[in-house]
Amino acid sequence: MTLSVRLRHGFGGFALDIAFEAPPGLTVLFGRSGSGKTTVINAVSGLLRPESGRIAVDDTVLLDRAARIDLPVHRRRLGYIFQDARLFPHMSVRQNLGYGRFFAPRAAPGLKPDRVIEMLGIGALLDRRPGALSGGEKSRVAIGRALLARPRILLADEPLAALDEARKAEILPYFERLRDEVQIPILYVSHSATEVARLATTIVALKAGRVERAGPARDLLADPAFTPTGIRDAGAILSARIVAHHPDGLTELDAGGQPLLLPRVAQPEGQVLRIRIAAQDVILSRARPEGLSALNILPGTVAAIRTGEGPGALVSLQTPAGLILARLTRRSLDAMQLAPGTPCHAVMKTVAIAPDAVGPAR
């Protein structure tokens, strides 16, 4: 299924005018605060009635202002995951999950309760009430309730924003499972570069109520011209397969035929990983360096360079593992005489790749 969205709406000096498609997988609405992300997701859910537009899931039209179609919220078959869990405090986990099932049409396709409970690891929580749950446990139950409504699409409005870093690390793998196992579009609002790199299959970048860029996450994040939340958040995605776990606590990957070492990753050998490499953690060298403490050195060729008015620059390097971004000064760029086509090496410290930047690939 594909979600198609075309909207125009204005209020309070802000004008929204966008169009995009969200295929199966996880589409992130990405951008700074005030760019229109929550307005879009509220219009898709039916909580906001736009001035004009059309929203459809394949052939099912949820909204078409020109044709005077505007399905109420309860008929749109949506699963909505909010920033806070919004569980019913007087109900047990089992009853909260059952509330989602209450609104699901009997003939609608969807996951069975046992499958959802197993996927989210909440079997031991069924008889508890929300007051006895941790923040991460509440989030998992909220995801389960949304799934058991057998939705056409799943909406998530910054669902990790209210969690601390430990709880975010706990919940991210569950969204990865949703992305990979649930065959419906997931529309996910975020302004976190780490969440986008871990989860997104598609990115729709918003700026001042307009779609700035849209496309596959891997392509956009590797483009040095794509910095919707600022150059400090720039980073690209690599895919690599685990080949060995070493006794010294490092995991060795095969990244396009090149070795890549990370702090131990709790995944089996053979698992393909999706890894975000932050541009600020990459050093470039014209010749292959020797005698460094950094263990990861990937050969490549400069693919593109972006410079702005300030002293910094972003360089895109094509390596056997994929495109990597490096952030450096224009002085270094000039001193190294870098230009598209220049052979170069990307140098990355093993410990600079944070655990939350690594997850299973789809």
TrEMBL record:
The family database entries (Pfam families) matched by this protein are listed as:
ABC_tran, TOBE
Q: Where in this chain does the record put each Mop domain?
A: 291-357
Superkingdom of the organism of origin: Bacteria
Is Translocase one of the keywords?
A: yes
> For this protein, what is any one GO molecular function term?
ATP hydrolysis activity
Keyword list, A-Z: ATP-binding, Cell inner membrane, Cell membrane, Membrane, Molybdenum, Nucleotide-binding, Translocase, Transport
Tell me which Gene3D superfamilies the record gives: 2.40.50.100, P-loop containing nucleotide triphosphate hydrolases
Q: What InterPro entries has UniProt attached to this entry?
A: AAA+_ATPase (IPR003593), ABC_transporter-like_ATP-bd (IPR003439), ABC_transporter-like_CS (IPR017871), Mo/tungstate-bd_C_term_dom (IPR008995), ModC_ABC_ATP-bd (IPR011868), Molybdenum_import_ModC (IPR050334), Mop_domain (IPR004606), P-loop_NTPase (IPR027417)
Record domain ABC transporter: where: 1-233
Q: Which SUPFAM superfamilies match?
A: MOP-like, P-loop containing nucleoside triphosphate hydrolases
**GO CC: one term?**
membrane
Q: Which PANTHER family match?
A: ABC TRANSPORTER I FAMILY MEMBER 10 (PTHR43514)
Designated name of the protein: Molybdenum ABC transporter ATP-binding protein
What is the species listed in this Swiss-Prot or TrEMBL entry? Pseudooceanicola albus
